[in-house]
Amino acid sequence: MSRVAELIRQTFGRLTRRYSVMVHAGPDSGLKHYTLPAVVIPVLLAVLLAGLVGGGLAVLRWTGDRMDRNHVAHLENENARLADQIQDFRRTVQVFESRMQEAQQLEQEFRNLANLEPIPDEVRRLGVGGPRPFTELQDEASPSPVVREARESLDRLEDLNRQVEFQQANFQEMIETLEESRSRLERIPSISPVATGAFSSGYGNRVDPFTKRTTMHRGVDFSAWTGTPVYATADGTVTKAGRQGTLGLLVEIDHGGGIETRYGHNSRVLVKVGQSVKRGDKIAEVGSTGRSTSPHCHYEVRVDGHHVNPWRYILDGGPRRNGA
Known about the structure:
alpha+beta, Glucose Permease (Domain IIA), 2 domains, two-stranded antiparallel sheet, ten-stranded antiparallel beta sheet, 43% helix
């Protein structure tokens, strides 16, 4: 009990103790003396600490608010920049859509030239269908107009991409069809077998120069100098190349599709059986071999084994006259 009383007295003595503080106020004022009770010092320290803590918190809050405002301003600027870019992107997509429509019109013209059926609209729509892309932007309830515009633009771009793939397949089909058509056309006789010379005898009944009787002439004759080049009138494969009775040195070409051509009375044959030739290739030289009265090229066209008038297959007007 005595020890407790002693502690109380000591504590009370410290609290009632007074401290002197001397402050130098300036050269004229000298020293100023202040006396403070001991109990005031902890209070002053507590007030100072509270002020420091409060000031620090205020500074932190002000700094945080300022950073938030700067961050928001940055995001708004970034959002505006993205919105401008999306608008540019939308305009680019519109240009691509316009060009795709032009490509589809051009495709239709090509399909008409290739004798291909037009593609129905429902087939074209099925060809560009499928799941929507970019699922991360498919939030239909998104309040952001930038997100909605971006989603719409990306959807349109993906549709364009599918249309391009569909268009590529269509053009590939047309190219293959046109190549087949070109191959067939290249195998149809269409030029004169000689470039220079003169038409001397036509297709049909005529007076035979040897028998003087009317007989069927199964081709046309072009008079020309001996050695004048004889050309293949279409692509094909040589089936005969050599002497053939009254036609002398003969070249026969199978063009496929039931079409054959024959070139008679040559002085030289320049191709072999089985050889592939192209329209305009030199295959022989004009002569007067076989049953002939003068140098000329006897030219025949047969379709499905039947002779036809070769003039129906000479689309370049025939040979030019020598010296013309």
